[in-house]
Amino acid sequence: MLTISGLAVDVAGRRVVDGVDLDLAAGEITALAGRSGSGKSLTARAVAGLLPGGATVSGRVLLNRDGRAEDLLGLSPHRLRRLRGSAIGYVFQESQAALNPTVTVGGHLLETLKAHGVPRPHRRTRGLAALRQAGLPAPERLWSAYPFELSGGQAQRVALALASALDPPVLIADEVTSALDPVTQAGVLDILRAGARVGQRAVLLITHDLAVAGCWADRLAVLDGGRIVESGPSCRVLRAPAHPFTADLVRASGVVPSGADSADAHVSARVAGERA
Ligand SMILES: Nc1ncnc2c1ncn2[C@@H]1O[C@H](COP(=O)(O)OP(=O)(O)OP(=O)(O)O)[C@@H](O)[C@H]1O
């Protein structure tokens, strides 16, 4: 669905993402893991055209849809804005901060759906459906709530609903669960997985947590100093890391991979039991 090749990002004259190649397949979750400062967020932001001012980007990010490939790095800001939301959804770690405090949950959804040309009579129904799909079973009750009235888990699900409302084929989730308790975290990750499996979406899960990557991702790429040092089926990477950096990361994370080679095999450890 999305082919990233030779992606490089420079910030303030320093190369912080260096030749990243990644293939995101429909129906799969690909985790991009690495320690703090390794370039995970800037990789994700470069894909979505959300780099900070002054950053420069090169390489190719091909979105393959309807038999056509479109290089997202060569697009005008206008075209990119149109694609964000409809083709690429992005969920930030700080969902409370990403929501406008003066706009209700319903207002956020109506605004997004309107901006992408959804006819007025369908907007509320679509918005409520998106909230339900994001794991908020009584969305009517939340429709008039303001962001400060939401729990962290609810805010993250609202952000997920906003990013998924237009059913984008690609969804980027940037550290979306790091601020959540383990049970809420598992619920949000289950929603991401359902979006991948049922909606045939390609999901890029940015995480520093190998346990999260191992439990929920089909594939895992490990980033160090802006470069991918290892990638493959997440279970294989965690069970038999080929690169010393990955091995260190696995040891430090306390992840104990078990089970078969299948990408769907379990990873046990501190997240044992969270997997639905
Ligand atoms: N706006 C910016 N200006 C200058 N340098 C930046 C900026 N944003 C990120 N960087 C630098 O780029 C490098 C990669 O940052 P990035 O945020 O992608 O890392 P990360 O792996 O996502 O880290 P974390 O897990 O802590 O969020 C870091 O060295 C960081 O200091």
Automatic annotation (TrEMBL):
Keywords: ATP-binding, Cell membrane, Membrane, Nucleotide-binding, Transport. The keyword Methyltransferase does not apply. PROSITE patterns: ABC_TRANSPORTER_1, ABC_TRANSPORTER_2. The lineage of its organism: Bacteria, Bacillati, Actinomycetota, Actinomycetes, Streptosporangiales. It is found in: Cell membrane. InterPro entries: AAA+_ATPase, ABC_Ni/Peptide_Import, ABC_transporter-like_ATP-bd, ABC_transporter-like_CS, P-loop_NTPase. It is a peripheral membrane protein. Its main location: membrane. Pfam families: ABC_tran. The keyword Iron does not apply. Residues 2-250 form the ABC transporter domain. Belongs to the ABC transporter superfamily. This is ABC transporter domain-containing protein. It comes from the Bacteria.
